[in-house]
Amino acid sequence: MENLPSLNGLRAFEAAARCGSVKAAAAELFVTPGAVSQQVKALEAALGTPLFRRVGNTLQLSEAGAALYPVLHEAFQSIAGAVRRVREREQAGPLTVSTVSSFASKWLVPRLGRFRERHPQIDVRISATERLADFSRDDVDVAIRLGSGNYAGLRSDFLFREPLFPVCSPRLVTGSIPLREPADLRHHTLLHDETYDAWLLWLRQHGVQGVEARRGPVFSDASMALQAAMDGQGVAMARGELAAQDLADGRLVRPFDLSVPYRFAYFVVSLPEVAEWPKVAAFREWVLEQARQFRAEHPQVAPAGMGGVDDATPPGRGTPDGRHQP
User: Fold this and answer.
1) Which CATH architecture has domain 163-262?
2) Which residues contact 277 (CB under 8 A, 6 or more apart)?
3) Which end of the chain is more exposed for a tag (fewer CB within 10 A), N or C?
4) Per-residue pLDDT reduced to its tens digit, 303-321
C-alpha cells in the first residue's frame, strides 16, 4: 500500500481510458482537461512508463495501460458499489428522531401510528432526551425542538408556536377553595417545569398580586407537572400542545381564559444534506402536515403566527439558543 501512486492520478487515468478522451474524463471528474493531463503524466512518471499512445485525435492504451486499466476499473466499480450500498442502507434504515420526552409522549407518539400507516417501510426510533442533538456525532436524523429556529448550518421548519396558560384538575376549580379568579391562586400550590419564568411572566402580564411566582415543586419534565395537576396536586403552567389532549378529554381544565405567548416555537431540524433523504423528507412532510392539522383543530392552544412566526419561516440561520437548540 505504501508504494501506491496518487489516487487522483489513478482516477484520472481510469476515467480517460474508459471515456477515450481527456476532455470527457475532465467533465466527469469536474476538473479541467489540463488537470487530467497533468495527473496522468504524474502517474506515468511514478510508474516509469507511458500509459497512452496518441493516434490522431484519439487515445489508445499502451501495453502497460492495457494491463492497468481493467484492474483499476474493477476496483473503482467495487468502491462505488460499496459506497452506494452504504448510502442506501443509511437512507433506508431506521429513522431516528430526537426530541424532549414531554413533546414525544404528549404530542408526537400519539400520532406516530398515522405515519406508520402512510410509510410502513420506515421504522421510526424516538430518542427522548433533554440533551442537545449533535448531528455530526449522534446517530440522529431529525430533531424536534423548542427554540427560535435560527440554528447555524441546519435546516429548520416551523411547526407551531403556543401560548402558556394555567391548568388544573376539574375538581380543584370547584373544591373547598375554588378557583374563581387569578388572585385565588395564592391559596393553591403552583406546579413548575424547568420553564422557571412561566408563572412570573403570566402573573405580571395579567396584573395578579399577592401570588408567589416561584413557590411550589419543580419537575424536570413538563409532562410530569401536568400529571401532578391532573392528580389535583396544584395548578400547572401548561404549553398548548402538551395540554391539548388532556383538556379535550376533561382530565385538565383552564380555570381562567388568560394566556401569554411563549417566546419560542417548535421546529423540525436536520442537516441540509440529509434533509432530502427519502425517509427524512417523508417524516418532515408528515410532521408539518400534522402540525397544520393540530393548529386548525386547536387554534386556542396552537396559534400559527404569535410573535411573527408562521409556516413560511425559512430554513434557520444564525446562532443557536442555548438549551433550546436541537
Assistant:
1) 3-Layer(aba) Sandwich (3.40)
2) 90, 91, 141
3) N
4) 444 333 333 333 333 323 3
